[in-house]
Amino acid sequence: TRCFWVDTWAFEQITAEIDRHLKGPRDKVDDARLTQLADRMLALYAGPYMATDTDEPWYISPRERLRNKFVRAMGDIGRYWQQAGQLDRAVDYFQRSLETDNLAEGFYRHLMLCYRQLGRHAEAIDIYQRCRKTFSAVLSVAPSPETTALYETLLHQS
């Protein structure tokens, strides 16, 4: 590690630091440092590990492990801002996370919740439509019942 820089090592270090940072009391979180870590993670994680190669057994597990860490860490960061009442910041991180991983349903759902809290129901509905179209085209599935129920609630509130 003293002679080489490897992006997966750097990614692992950032996710570990985010975890440590968010594990403590909320009033002890350094917002500036959390923002810096989130921005570094988004810059570093450009999508699935070895995504352009065919599925070789030896890197499927690392690909999924790194993706799961990305989804968990960015979800935690977005929810932190959401719970702190900084909804515009949460929206920004959920949107940027979706640009990197458009199959992470939790990002769509939390983005819908943020828009609902901001009173931007049309945008929340649009996010559901984007989720539905993406899942249909890529996975041939519909969004989860939880996401669909949120969408239906939004329709009734509009």
Could you characterize what this model shows?
The protein has about 160 residues and is mostly helical. The chain has seven helices and no strands. Helix 1 runs parallel beside helix 3 and helix 4 packs antiparallel against helix 5. It starts with 6 loop residues before the first helix and ends with a helix. The mean pLDDT is about 90.
Briefly characterize the structure.
This protein has 158 residues and is an all-alpha fold. The protein has helices spanning 7-23, 31-44, 57-83, 87-100, 105-117, 121-139, 145-157. Helix content is 74%, strand content 0%.
Shape by Cα distribution: flat
According to DSSP, the number of beta strands is 0
The pLDDT mean sits at: 89
Estimated structural class:
mainly alpha
**What is the N-to-C succession of helices and strands?**
HHHHHHH
SS field, number of helical segments:
7
Biggest sheet descriptor:
none
* Amino-to-carboxy terminus distance: 54 Å
Low-confidence runs: none
The proportion of residues in beta strands is: under 5%
Rg, Cα atoms, Å: 17 Å
> Fraction of residues in helices?
over 70%
| Subunit organisation of the chains | single chain
